[in-house]
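F.,

This is the one I mentioned.
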């Protein structure tokens, strides 16, 4: 793809990919399930080599995986174990979904952008949410964790649907959330430095 000739298309594809990668930070398999449904219905076009996301096998696998993942986060203290395993999985999944959205891009550029932007965004969102879950457990003894799990599943679903329907709006939400996360991190580091 001649990137300079198709800047609006590249921006939209990147916004879609970032939206999906951020959603993976909330839940790994919910975005895959929704992308699979969208690909099967023709609502989203995927980069070459990613047609498998819309296959019958993928739809069944992602459905089962999403249900199991959602249910597992409602089991007290198992949710923390799952967070540890889901961290690397989220980075990988964010990379794959970002790459799948970058249509007509040279493979070396697609994967470079996907690894840095997609994997990085998914990892940042997942790490932030895992930290918030630890805080929830510490302050409520884990009693608020089911509500937190519900919020995460809702966030993954909403962000995925928004990215699929209006990628630029999803990008705006991601930028807003990233600014808030970065501010909190800076404040936390600043407070630690003053001690």
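My design for it:
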């Amino acid at each position: 793809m001649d990137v300079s000739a198709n800047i609006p298309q590249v921006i939209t594809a990147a916004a879609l990919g970032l939206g999906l990668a951020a959603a993976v930070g909330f839940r790994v398999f919910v975005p895959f399930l929704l992308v699979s449904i969208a690909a099967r219905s023709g609502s989203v076009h995927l980069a070459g080599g990613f047609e498998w996301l819309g296959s019958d096998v993928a739809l069944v696998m992602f459905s089962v995986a999403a249900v199991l993942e959602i249910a597992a986060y409602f089991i007290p203290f198992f949710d923390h174990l799952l967070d540890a395993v889901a961290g690397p999985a989220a980075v990988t999944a964010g990379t794959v979904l970002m790459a799948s959205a970058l249509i007509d891009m040279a493979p070396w550029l697609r994967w470079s952008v996907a690894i840095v932007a997609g994997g990085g965004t998914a990892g940042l969102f997942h790490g932030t949410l895992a930290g918030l879950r630890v805080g929830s457990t510490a302050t409520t003894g884990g009693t608020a964790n089911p509500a937190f799990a519900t919020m995460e599943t809702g966030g993954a679903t909403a962000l995925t649907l928004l990215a699929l329907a209006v990628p630029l709006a999803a990008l705006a939400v991601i930028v807003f959330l990233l600014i808030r996360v970065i501010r909190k991190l800076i404040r936390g580091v600043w407070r630690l430095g003053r001690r």
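Residues 73 and 149 are 6 Å apart (CA to CA).

Talk soon.
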